[in-house]
Write a structure and sequence with these properties.
alpha+beta; four-stranded mixed beta sheet; 8 helices; about 45% helix; EC 2.5.1.18
Length: about 220
């Protein structure tokens, strides 16, 4: 049975990360369209599979899972021999520890300020709400502090968890691609050459950053 990915018409945000992982893992999937503008995600049928009325949602032969990071880690654990390896094997205690460490950093130190900016410059503007410049400035300041640390980390290694791309790197792309088009060009700045080297190809095409071994998959 083909895995089902419930997502909007434009597979973006967290849904795009799940789709990228499915492709990288060579897992065929079916895109089940959720009409978010029409508020289908708030209807009883969708609430039965995601009580918060959000996307993405994964249906793997009747096993229902929501939340982007949980879905991606599940796919990595459920299909370890498929396509690209995107997390350390369970027996690699040190590798798992570094992975979890940087996952915590991504959630607490990167995603929060990044989403504060996105909320103002993307979502509020989309719904005709005036952006709060104070929130934008604070988000840019906090995100800049995180990127300064990343600059040091990435001076020593190619990716945030080491020499190979991982789920943690992909999680950094949940909403980040929306920043520059909205006028907040913070991810590729000359004062942070290592951060620029890291983010530029990821923002251009995460699939191209993945190993060519096993990358294929497909959407039905």
């Amino acid at each position: 049975m083909v895995v089902k990915l419930y997502a909007g018409a434009r597979v973006s945000g967290g849904s795009s990360i799940v789709a990228t992982v499915l492709l990288a893992k060579n897992i065929p999937y079916e895109h089940i369209l959720v009409d978010v503008p029409g508020k289908q995600n708030k209807g009883p049928e969708h609430l039965a599979i995601h009580p918060f009325g959000q996307i993405p949602v994964l249906d793997d032969n009747g096993f229902i899972l929501y939340e982007t990071r949980a879905i991606c880690k599940y796919l990595e654990n459920k299909y370890p021999g498929h396509g690209q390896q995107l997390a350390p094997v369970p027996t690699d205690a040190e590798g798992q520890a570094i992975f979890d460490q940087m996952l915590s950093v991504e959630v607490n130190n990167f995603y929060r300020p990044m989403f504060k900016i996105v909320q103002e410059v993307v979502f509020n503007r989309l719904f005709g709400i005036e952006a709060n410049q104070t929130n934008i400035d604070q988000g840019v300041k906090d995100l800049g502090t995180t990127l300064d640390v990343y600059e040091t980390v990435l001076a020593k290694q190619k990716y945030l968890t080491g020499g190979q791309i991982s789920l943690v790197d992909l999680y950094h792309l949940i909403y980040t691609p929306g920043l520059a088009p909205a006028g907040v060009d913070i991810m590729t700045r000359p004062e942070r050459p290592n951060v620029t080297r890291y983010f530029a190809p990821l923002l251009y095409s995460p699939i191209l950053c993945l190993s060519s071994v096993g990358v294929g998959g497909g959407m039905t």
